[in-house]
Amino acid sequence: MKQHWHVNPLPPPDESSDRPDGSVGLALWALIVIGPMIYFGHQLGAVETCLLRAYEMLESLLLPIRDWLLG
For the whole model, what pTM was predicted? Predict the structure, then answer.
């Protein structure tokens, strides 16, 4: 009868020195997060301004509703 992988799982891998310890993951994370900030740095101010304007517009639309409910 054929054995399935979920019935007879493989043993957990042993701790070996050739596996990365987490510094590689940290370096990749930093590259993914910091890289676009460096590349698009001059445009981030415009994006931040656009997001701030959208938040202010949404707040001005919801302000009368909030005043009516809580006021």
Answer: 0.44
